[in-house]
Design brief:
By secondary structure, this protein is an alpha/beta fold. The chain is built from 12 helices and 8 strands. The strands form 2 sheets. It has a 6-stranded parallel sheet, sandwiched between helices. The N and C termini lie far apart (48 Å).
């Protein structure tokens, strides 16, 4: 684990676990870039904004509802359920936790801890390589057709300018790495689950890469790669990512929720909305930190199970 000496002075306070999660994500993300990426997908459209060809600049993209329609773990949960990773009892508990959160609109600490423990228990004892292989299949089944073309074009513009482009997400780093590789991006920063000898232990390194932890991951990666954060860009749909967006010189609100839209307008941040009609009206659907998306995915699996019955 890298030393805390990496970090540049912070404008915002961060917990030790946020720092640990951020540094772990940066380490895992850089390690994943050592693998040979697949060819990039063709460019889909020309962005409407200029991108400076500056090697000390990079772009950081949130994943859920920014790059991909919906939550990556929602789709991943569907794939795992199809492969019988879940028991009905676990499905019911996840569904209840997500339903409670959506109704209440706030995070209950006890619910969140229980949800995180449950999610980790599902992968405990499984090999990392096994989940990576399954993740590749799930991407083709559920994710490939859900990439926003507009956001994809923004990422491609940075790549064409010779800049690094990173996903930054609360989803597992393995899942995020698969998506980044398929899109031809540089790499991904995601939640790091502990593994020993290639087997998941059922514990996290730090905490889910959510909120302030995302900013810490970007800060750590920038220190390692020599990025000037004032020259970097960040993109997100969620007000939870304001710490990350505030860290860079060029923040963008993409398909923003209500709070982020108001914040972006107040600070004159650039805004892009690729949703249309009814979809654009559905902003601000809450997702619990770190594992809320997984809970949503398992809730969807319950619905699928009921339909089959």
């Amino acid at each position: 684990m890298a030393a805390l000496g990496w970090l540049t002075p912070r404008k915002r306070s961060a917990t030790a676990r946020s720092v640990l999660a951020g540094e772990a994500a940066a380490e895992a993300g850089l390690k994943s870039t050592q693998e040979t990426p697949e060819p990039r997908e063709p460019r889909e459209e020309t962005p409407e904004f200029p991108v400076v060809g500056d090697a000390r600049a990079a772009a950081f993209f949130d994943l859920d509802n920014t790059v991909m329609q919906g939550a990556a773990l929602f789709h991943f949960g569907r794939g795992l359920y199809k492969r019988k990773f879940f028991q009905r009892r676990e499905l019911a508990r996840f569904a209840w936790q997500q339903a409670w959160f959506r109704v209440a609109g706030v995070e209950d600490p006890e619910h969140m801890q229980d949800a995180r423990d449950s999610a980790l228990s599902i992968v405990k004892g499984h090999r990392v390589a096994e989940l990576m292989s399954i993740g590749e299949e799930i991407y083709d089944e559920y994710m490939a057709d859900r990439i926003w073309p507009g956001t994809r074009a923004l990422a491609q513009a940075h790549l064409d300018a010779g800049q690094q482009v990173w996903l930054v997400t609360a989803a597992p780093v393995e899942t995020a790495t698969i998506i980044a590789r398929r899109l031809g991006l540089t790499g991904a920063l995601g939640t790091v689950a502990e593994s020993v000898d290639g087997v998941y232990t059922g514990k996290l390194v730090g905490e889910p890469l959510h909120g302030p932890a995302k900013a810490e991951a970007v800060r750590a990666l920038a220190a390692r790669e020599g990025f000037d954060l004032d020259r970097c860009a960040a993109y997100s749909d969620s007000h939870n990512d304001i710490p990350m967006l505030s860290l860079v010189g060029h923040p963008y609100a993409i398909n923003p929720d209500t709070k982020l839209r108001k914040h972006a307008r107040r600070l004159d941040w650039r805004l892009r909305d690729y949703r249309t009609g009814r979809k654009a009206a559905k902003v601000g659907i809450p997702a619990a930190a770190g594992v809320g998306a997984l809970a949503g995915g398992t809730a969807a699996a319950v619905a699928l199970h009921r339909r089959r019955r």
